[in-house]
Amino acid sequence: MKMETSILFKNRLSIFTICSIFCVLTYGIDRPRGVSMEKASFYQGGTEFRCISTGKRIPMDHINDDYCDCEDGSDEPGTSACNNGLFYCENKSYKGNYIMSTRVNDGICDCCDGSDEYDGTISCENTCEKLFAEIRAQQEAFRAKQEAGYKVKLEYIQNGRRTKDEKLAKLTELSKEKEIFAQERDVLQAAKEEAEVPEKEAKAKHEQAWEAVKAEKKKQAEAAAAAVAFGELDTNGDQIVDYPELTKHAEFDIDSDGTVSDEEAKEYLEDSDQVDLVTFTEKIWPNIKEIYKPIGSKEEAQSEPTDPTKQEKTSEEGEAPADPANAKPVEEEQMPDYDEETKRLISVADEARAKFDEADRKVKDVENEISAIKKYLELDLGPEEEFSALKGQCFEYTDREYTYRFCPFEKTSQKPKGGGMETNLGNWGHWHGPENDKYDAMKYENGQSCWNGPNRSCHVNLHCGAENALIGASEPSRCEYQFEFTTPSRCSAPPAPGTHYDHEEL
């Protein structure tokens, strides 16, 4: 038993000695194979090693002796003895990384420098320089893209600041103009109102005179109609209409019993036995004109029994008598033109109104321009106005089914490639990036509602690019869309040529 222990110890010592010599030549003193510089301090100095996670003490010569003493495998960074151990690939000229210790000396080159296959079973080509060259090419392409985009961004910033300054100056100028125009409008409004007073009086006088003429004509027409009716009712021609003459007209049958009684006739004569033309015109005619049926009218013919011997003449024998009830109404007379003085007053008022309208238009135009400038200034176009170049532009991206449209600070939409209605995917809402970089993304909200679902919305991710371009569109969730957009506005100042980037940054 002691002999076996002694042999094992000698073997461990031999392995440790070989490893130590290799580590001194390759990595430097006190840094065993498979250990990174950041963890080298755990393996330096003393005669004992403490397992990193548990603190268990083991002799220093048990490091990389191909026997797992620590539960965390920290005593075997350079062998495959521990299933949970980690081996550090230094990968000089490229990028160091960890692999599982079980992959050490397994016949497969995992580290680009081949350090994981050191037992000589296979020979690994050192590909670190090649990988580094590829990474450098990517880094240089990324730097060049940043540089090109940043140059454009500087122009955007310059133009954006100039535009903002110009709009602020224009706002001040327009505010002064508005004040002047408003004062002119007030003066012209007073002149307009002053000119409209005599115009209104003259037009009212003319219209009142015309109404009086129409009333007189109407009165005369009523008197003429009353005279005609009086003459028809006065069947004996004695210039008097009495109640017996009314009983011959069926339209005066109040109770609809087929006859007109004396009492019914007298009721239409205002309880009088008879009336003359003046009384008939003033008192009787206004009450009966709506029901009175003139002799020979269609209404009268319908109220009497049909007599085959009294048929209307055919077209061969001559036209039938005209039916007054079917006669076309006489068109109402047009009011005569204004007199010359009234026309002059109207012309003066028209000129005053035109001047006021022009002044009012100027005020409203200035107000609209002021409103548009204020709306622009309220937009958050970036800390340095770098996103101002996107305002007023639209960009499109087409996939197999749709053409997507992105109008920054306005809306997003999609339209079928084969034609059809455009669907609003969302209107400008707000910046939607993380707290430390809110300009990383945009949110467009309250788009067209989905069938049996919410309103559509769109999340726009912004990336550095040498030009403005919509490069992708998708629908990760129902009615929630995502656009990818490149723009110089998102580019940062590039590092100097040859600056090293961490691989993760790519």
UniProtKB/TrEMBL annotation:
Q: Which domain of life is it from?
A: Eukaryota
Residue ranges of the MRH domain?
Answer: 392-493
Q: Which InterPro entries match?
A: EF_Hand_1_Ca_BS (IPR018247), Gtb1-like (IPR039794), LDrepeatLR_classA_rpt (IPR002172), Man6P_isomerase_rcpt-bd_dom_sf (IPR009011), MRH_dom (IPR044865), PRKCSH (IPR036607), PRKCSH_N (IPR028146)
Note the PROSITE patterns from the entry: EF_HAND_1 (PS00018), MRH (PS51914)
* UniProt GO cellular component terms: glucosidase II complex
Q: Which GO terms describe its biological process?
A: N-glycan processing
Region annotation Disordered: where it falls in the sequence:
295-339
Pfam families in the cross-refs: PRKCSH-like, PRKCSH_1
Q: Where is the composition biased (Basic and acidic residues)?
A: 295-316
What keywords are annotated for this sequence in UniProt?
Disulfide bond, Endoplasmic reticulum, Signal
Supply the name of the protein. Glucosidase 2 subunit beta
In its UniProt entry, the species of origin is given as: Biomphalaria glabrata
User: Where is the organism placed in the taxonomic lineage, from the top?
Assistant: Eukaryota, Metazoa, Spiralia, Lophotrochozoa, Mollusca
